Inverse folding.
C-alpha cells in the first residue's frame, strides 16, 4: 500500500511522455487523448484498480449503461426553466402555466424542436436539456 501511495505521488509531477509510457506499460492499451491532468487521473485510477481489484461487475455495467435500464424523461411541470449552453451561447427554455414550451419569444411543440433549432441537427429534446433519468426495466 505504501508503494501505491508513493507511485501516486510520483505521477502527480510526471511529464506527459513519462505518463504516456507508464500508461502503455501498465494497461497495454493505446494512450488516450486526454489533457495531462486527466491522464494523471486515469493512470492513478488504473494503478489503484490493479492494486485493489477495480470496480465490481455491477458497477462496470452501470457505468457502461448496459445494466438493463432504460432512459425516462422527466415530466415538464409549469414554471420549469431549462438552461443549456451550446457553442458558447446560453439558451433558456421555460414551460408556461399552460404547459407550453417557450424559447426565444416563441411557442414550440416540443423540446426536441427547440433542440433541433439550437443545434441544427436532430436531438432528443429531453436528452439535450438533461432531463433523461435511468429507470429499471420492467
Amino acid at each position: 500500500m505504501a508503494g501505491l501511495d508513493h507511485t501516486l505521488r510520483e505521477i502527480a509531477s510526471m511529464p506527459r511522455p513519462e505518463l504516456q509510457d507508464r500508461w502503455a506499460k501498465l494497461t497495454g492499451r493505446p494512450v488516450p487523448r486526454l489533457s495531462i491532468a486527466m491522464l494523471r487521473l486515469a493512470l492513478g485510477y488504473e494503478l489503484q484498480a490493479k492494486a485493489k481489484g477495480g470496480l465490481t461487475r455491477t458497477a462496470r455495467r452501470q457505468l457502461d449503461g448496459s445494466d438493463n435500464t432504460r432512459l425516462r424523461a422527466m415530466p415538464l411541470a409549469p414554471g420549469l426553466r431549462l438552461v443549456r449552453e451550446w457553442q458558447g451561447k446560453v439558451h433558456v427554455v421555460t414551460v408556461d402555466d399552460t404547459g407550453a414550451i417557450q424559447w426565444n419569444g416563441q411557442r414550440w411543440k416540443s423540446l426536441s424542436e427547440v433542440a433541433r433549432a439550437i443545434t441544427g441537427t436532430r436531438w432528443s429534446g429531453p436528452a439535450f436539456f438533461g432531463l433523461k433519468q435511468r429507470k429499471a426495466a420492467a
